[in-house]
Fold this sequence. Notes:
The chain has helices spanning 7-14, 18-25, 33-46, 52-58, 73-76, 82-96, 109-122, 140-143, 168-181, 197-212, 229-239, 253-265, 283-287, 299-314, 340-344, and strands at residues 64-70, 100-106, 127-131, 150-153, 163-166, 187-191, 222-224, 247-250, 275-279, 293-296, 323-325, 328-331, 350-352, 360-361. By secondary structure, it is an alpha/beta fold. Helix 11 (229-239) packs across helix 12 (253-265). The longest helix is centred in the middle third of the chain and has 16 residues, at 197-212.
Amino acid sequence: MNRKPTIRDVAKKAGVSVSTASLALNGKPGVSSETRAKVLKAALELNYQPHAAAKNLADGRTRTIGLINPITIEHLFSSSGFFMRLIQGMHQAAAEYDYSVFLLVSETEEEVLERMRKALQRRSLDGLVITNPSLASPYLKLLEGRHIPYVFVGRPPRDGALYVDNDNVAIGRLGTQHLIGLGHRRIVFLSGPSRFTHCQDRLLGYQAALREAGIGFSEELVWYVEQSEEAVYRTVLEKAPRHAFSAIFATSGIHAVGAIRALRDLGLSVPEDVAVVCVEDTELTRYFIPPLTAIDLHSYWLGYWAAKLLIRSIEGEDPGRPILIPGELVVRASSGGTTREEVRAGKEPKRRESPGQQVSQGGV
Length: 364
């Protein structure tokens, strides 16, 4: 025959109904071994190739996973590139299993809830990767009792959920220890909103580093600001003149850039007057002036392992335990750990700690 054989052709040749042929070809129960053998023989003789969409309908899968980011579109497509690399990692893992990644853009957690509800009603996704979990995520109740696998990027506020994250306590300690090692004792912790678990964990690391160095913790040096460069700029412009400090540990590149803008407008130089370290090593941190000392989160591997654990769960495999990816400190001029002259001379930045593709099994 000139046209491609269909499942009806297979059923006719095997002498069974279309529904029986479908059960046999998809390995479903309710078909005798003799009948299954006849159907498979007929399919082989006809060179039958099941249509991918039809096969997906037959086994109840779409072979599509969704990525939900409850952040602004400005941040999602910002110059930091964090989420772009995370999506690249997800795409790579999904391709290894012949899955696709669908991006559900949601700027607020309320919008996340609505998009998630629609996706569940339409059964258009086999599973979800959810970033930036917070203490009051309204979608947590929606996920309870639903038979859809999900993985968080970031430590979820409730125990028992599967997640992939950086070791954010260690990251908070790492950045703070670097500044302490350079002689700083009054260090501002410039953080994103406290509702995010990664901000809470980095604060714990900051406090631990101060405690280990015998430096007292000062609540007045912890400044929480939304993930907006302008909001950070206004906050630092307002708070900096009222507090004595010699260094800033910013929990994102956007926070660092907003802070440095404000410091310059206040007549302060980086790192001569104020040293700056930030989290996320990106094009922004590498090419900013001065180049920023940053902790590389290896977001590609966050996305890769989140998708991999999710698909393992969808496929009925044991996904394993939560995974923690270590950060890596890259020392540049903004902290004073590498001089401007070394940067101009093209000297390689100093890297400390282990690479992000080395992962560890975390606990929930």
